[in-house]
Amino acid sequence: SFMQKLTGIADLADKLKKQLKISDVIVVPLDSDTAVTVKNQIGKEAARLLEMNFTGETKVAVTGGSTMAAIAKELKGEKAYPSLQFIAARGGLGEDVLHQANTIASAFAEKTGGSFKTLYLPDHLSEEAYAMMMKEPLIKEMMDLYEQTDLVVHGIGNAEELALRRQSTAEEVQMITEGGAVSEAFGYYFDAEGNVVYRIRSAGIQLEQVQKAPNIIAVAGGHSKAKAILSYFKNAPERTVLVTDEGAATEVLKLI
Ligand code: G3H
Fold first, then answer.
1. Distance 176 CA to ligand 1 centre (A)
2. What pTM was estimated for this model as a whole?
3. Going by C-beta distance under 8 Å and a sequence separation of 6 or more, which residues neighbour residue 18?
4. Which one of 149, 187, 191, 251 is CB 3.0 to 4.6 Å from 200, fit for a cystine?
5. Average pLDDT of the chain?
6. CA 219 to ligand 1: nearest atom
7. In a 3-state reduction of DSSP, which class is residue 202?
8. How far is the CA of 129 from the centre of ligand 1 (A)?
């Protein structure tokens, strides 16, 4: 019955929350790998959760990805929060425009009435270019904002898929595969134990800055992301709230 299904989902969320040792898990029915509308449901749940966290002058760092884009679509367009500030968590230009952190930050701001800060930098800088960029006042300003982040909202991806999607260099792909990368979040690649094995050489939020943010919301669904979710949460901050789907949740619990 419908009620049994709801209880099943709540039970799944509870089990996952205990296994991943995080403060909360929200599970939406079905699997976004097999039904396209499920990602929108993840977006909707995350949007409602976010709106509860929108108070005063909250600084919100956002990453890219299609799940993040789904949140932007589901935010209420009432422009009710003019003092919010959305900050692109990375300068990534390696992805589809619609799925870049910059685009997501501006979409969140458009819906909520807040302001936004973007950072247009390639995903793969040379060492020299990276060192020079870091001295630029504009980049320094972004780094200060990352330091003051109240809330981080990020996706989690499969390492290999992300490396390919971002048109990484052969050298980067090698670093990622040889390092045993399983998951990716905010430009960092993590192995099965949740250790960082690689970081994209572009300006962006630092892992330490994510880890000390007072509020963190992660969004990722689909059974194909189970290994990535498990890998990322080996070492993720306990106060993270994960919004996922039944497909991913069931598969993660099978892997444990
Ligand atoms: O950082 C994680 C990935 O960007 C997730 O992307 O939501 O499109 O799977 P996705």
1. 16
2. 0.96
3. none
4. 187
5. 94
6. 7
7. coil
8. 26
* φ/ψ (deg, to 5) at 28: -100, 150
Residues 6+ apart with CB under 8 A from 15: 253
Is the minimum distance from the CB of 43 to ligand 1 under 6 angstroms? no
Cβ(114)–Cβ(84) below 8 Å: yes
Q: What is the mean pLDDT of residues 91-109?
A: 89
Report which protein residue has its CA nearest ligand 1's atom 4. Answer: 65
So what's the pLDDT on residue 136? 92
Least confident piece of the model among 7-11, 65-69, 109-113, 238-242:
7-11
What six digits make up the tokens of 240?
A: 């993270």
Residue 187 CB–ligand 1 contact under 6 Å = no
Quick check: CB of 66 below 6 Å from ligand 1?
Answer: yes
ipTM reported for the complex, 2 dp: 0.96
Structure confidence at residue 70 (pLDDT): 98
In DSSP terms, 85 is beta-bridged to: 59, 115
Q: At what angle do helices 66-74 and 101-112 cross, to 10 degrees?
A: 10
